[in-house]
Amino acid sequence: MPSQRDVRNRIASVQNIRTITRAMEMVAAARLRRAEERIAHLRPYADAIRRMTRDAAEAAGQVPNMPILTEHESVENVGLLLVAGDRGLAGAFNSQIVRAGVAAAREHESEHHKTVFFASGRRPSSSLRFRGLEPAAAFTGFSDRPAYANAREIAERLIAAYVDGEVDRVDIFYNGYVSPISQIVRRETLLPLQQASIMGDDDNADDQTPSNGEESKPKALVEYEPDPDVILGRLVPDYVEISIFRALLESTASEHGARMTAMRNASENAGVLIEDLTLQMNRARQAAITQEIMEVVAGAEGVG
Asked: Average pLDDT of 64-85?
């Protein structure tokens, strides 16, 4: 049985750890509020860009013959962008993205497709290297507060890979923010445009049957100047950038929420451990006192 001093030292260590986890929980909560505000401000703009891109593609009819808009004849190489964090201590936040990306790679390999990994965040980058899957490009150092310039840098690399024929398709994996205790792994296709997720989106604003049962008003006719194909060529890079930026912000909020939840659970577990150790120390002290009393009684009986 450990001595009282050993147990007391363990209690002090756990108390120090609980102090740290509580501080990390409060920091994550403060950052989470700011991240939620950024998402709330971006989502309407991102939805508008995606809707405009889809409408322009439908208006153009035939996709213009431009490198970024040209669908490759066959899909041989698939680019997978994994968006996660630079730090750990966030539960399964990072690992579930890596698992989803590796599982998708296995699916593509079963279909005789090669996969090319791209990583945003130190954690997915190091995890891929540990598994022997060297990413073609890694972007790190901004997961706590990503800027639009970071999304543009990633988008330029992915667009260049698609245009140069390095990849024939680009998918992105990230944690979609639902609540501080709920993050959903999302998978979206960015390129080519013909297979992009936006081509299958059904926005509430475009629904022809409103929830209240009333007949919806017909959509307004849009006249494009210049032609829809020219506008589409300009919108697609913006669509890729804003989609990546939205994924970065969603991932940031998810990371702060996951870390806040993980640190809260760690603090609660530390409290339970302190109670158990305190009980163990009290039992050890009681046993020591009982042993001393028995020795005194035995000594008194021996004298008498």
From this structure: 86
Is the CB of residue 42 less than 8 Å from the CB of residue 301?
no
Average pLDDT (122-130) is: 95
Contacts 24+ apart (CB under 8 A), 5-9: 7/277, 7/280, 7/281, 7/284, 8/281
CATH 1.10.287.80 in the chain is located at 4-21+261-303
Check residue 69 and report its DSSP letter.
Answer: T
For 277, counting Cβ atoms within 10 Å of its Cβ (0-12 exposed, 13-18 middle, 19+ buried), the class is buried
Determine how many CB atoms are found less than 10 A away from the CB of residue 292.
Answer: 10
β-strands 169-179, 182-191 pairing: antiparallel
* Residue range(s) of every CATH 3.40.1380.10 domain in the chain: 29-199+225-256
Q: Do residues 137 and 102 lie in contact, with contact meaning Cβ atoms separated by under 8 Å?
A: no
Tokens of 54: 């889809």
**CATH homologous superfamily, domain 29-199+225-256:** ATP synthase, F1 complex, gamma subunit (3.40.1380.10)
Q: pTM to 2 decimals?
A: 0.82
Q: Does domain 4-21+261-303 have CATH number 3.40.50.150?
A: no
Q: How far apart are CA 69 and CA 184, in angstroms?
A: 30
- Residue 205: the pLDDT is 42
Distance CA 39, CA 35 (A): 6
CA separation for the pair 184, 191 (Å, rounded): 22
Per residue in 177-191, pLDDT (tens digit) is 998 888 999 999 998
Report whether pLDDT(78) > 80: yes
- 303, burial (CB in 10 Å: exposed 0-12, middle 13-18, buried 19+): exposed
Confidence of residue 32 (pLDDT cuts 50, 70, 90): very high
